Amino acid sequence: MTEQANGLASRVTGQVHVIGAGLLGASVGLGLRARGVDVTLEDVSPTTAALAADYGAGRARSAGEPDPALVVVATPPDVVADAVEGAIRRFPNAVVTDVASVKLAPLHELQRRGLNLDNYVGSHPMAGRERGGAIMARADLFVARPWVVCRDADTSAETLALVEAVALDLGAVLLEMTPEAHDRAVGLVSHLPQVVSSLLAARLVPAEEHAIELAGAGLRDTTRIAASDPELWVQILGANREPVIELLDAFQRDVAAFTDALRAADAPGSKRSIADLLASGTNGVARIPGKHGSAARFASITVLIDDRAGQLASLLTELGELGINMEDLRLEHSPGAQIGFAEIAVLPEVAERAVADLQSRGWRTL
Fold first, then answer.
1. Domain span at 324
2. Beta strands 16-19 and 70-73, pairing class
3. Are residues 276 and 298 part of one domain?
4. Whether 17 contacts 61, CB under 8 Å
5. pTM of the complete model
6. Same domain, yes or no, for 79 and 110?
7. Cα(52)–Cα(22) distance, rounded to whole angstroms?
8. 264-284 pLDDT, tens digit each
9. For the segment 1-43, what is each residue's pLDDT rounded down to a tens digit?
């Protein structure tokens, strides 16, 4: 096991070579370097590789070095099969994994090329940010995030163990799925939300300015991921188009049913249809895992804070003094007013006491 200077041990033995030094690749490098792992970097852009190295994600690989123990391919989806093939041919003694968000299409392409895939296993960390690049990389990007490993019957225990060691070193939560199950799952929880968010945000383009000025937390929540890179998403959606098309067809049927019921809102049964469709959404939200993957739901407290330096820090300090654990935090500003809203999620059993204690200290709550 590799030892870091501060005594934090790594489960990874040997060198790790990262191909693709953008957000995911550089974040893998940063996280492994924090545990003392020797990480080398490679990117089609020398500037990108040098930038990731400057941030501490690894170093350039020297000529004549022995094969790394593991190669992590973190390239864009449309070239991942090429990069995996290149890694297998260049480093025949290394385990190779990729972190692309679609698993079945690259696997089929590699199989079509007749490669020996004994040392390859696809994986996918469910982590990211709206903006990419090494400059946005973080060592803790994968902490508490699912990391899916798509093993098959030919995957050796040694190959699987090394890929899982990287995921565990980076603080991720391991899951095993088939490539088919993975692609269906991410189509539902990642790819469909991206399309819906983007199409909703697109309706804002022709909107009148006075309408945009009324935007609140609901619009921001539902359009946040619409700021993602369109070029990247064209690649992802193209690679996973069949599951996404099935989901979009079902979503389209739901929208049509809702529209028909709303159009005939006074007809018998229409109001029930609207209510049932909305209630289905409530039931769906209840299935989304909460903090640490639990199904626990939280109560929400909204605190009014002045829009000036130090107010939020003061609120958080007092929550700590009161012994109130904050499960989540969301901030919103009131348009045209020097005031903000801090929406704090707490356990339901402490919500009433939290409101009373904060009010006793002069905080205004809604």
1. 293-365
2. parallel
3. no
4. yes
5. 0.79
6. yes
7. 8
8. 999 999 999 999 999 999 999
9. 555 544 567 788 889 999 999 999 999 999 999 999 999 999 9
